[in-house]
Amino acid sequence: MLSQFTPEHEGQITLANLDFAFPKDAWPVGRLDADSEGLLLLSTDKSLNAALLLPKQQHPRTYWIQVEGVPTEDAIQQLRRGVSIQINGKQHLTLPASVRPLGSPPNVPPRVPPIRVRKNIPDAWLEITLTEGKNRQVRRMAAAVGFPVLRLVRARIGHLGLGDEGLGHLQPGMVVALNAEQLERLMASL
Description:
The protein has one domain: Alpha-L RNA-binding motif (Alpha-Beta Plaits). The chain has 4 helices and 10 strands, in the order βββαβαββββαββα. The radius of gyration is 17 Å and the shape is globular. A hairpin with a 2-residue loop joins β5 (about 85) and β6 (about 90-95). The chain has helices spanning about 45-55, 75-80, 135-145, 180-190; strands at about 25-30, 35-40, 40-45, 60-70, 85, 90-95, 100, 125-130, 150-155, 160. Strands 2, 4, 7, 8, 9 and 10 form a 6-stranded mixed beta sheet that branches. A two-stranded antiparallel ribbon has the order 1-3. Strands 5-6 form a two-stranded antiparallel sheet. By secondary structure, the chain is α+β, with helices and mostly antiparallel strands.
């Protein structure tokens, strides 16, 4: 599903296909590309949008990534320190990130379509938390240290995360309207 309301090509599924009556001025706050999945916030609140979209705010976003191969400790340390990636033809040194290997895959539904699997190449899951949001940054960072991303799931924005109490166990395509207390906690965590 595209994280927008209008398809770019005929037949694409967008937010408009969800069974939810979004306000006319609701917009995705931070996008997921067509190959990514996970938590997406939509808002009509301009102050929340600014807090989440302005680069200087550096709010945390956590992703679970399944990578091809098993990352070495050196690769994980490189990600933690920051790596050089190319954005719009220019080199960019990423800010330090929090990175930890996940001992087992996170509890997420099967991917549709499934990821490619190579019988002779193992894979591993990492949790990575960034405070900046460059285009396809997580994928570029993992590739820069030699471990291409097979699956990417945004698990958390600020303090809100998949499976958090109050959000229920979110499944693909589910929409939950945040209450005033949840919005206040979100703003406080940014």
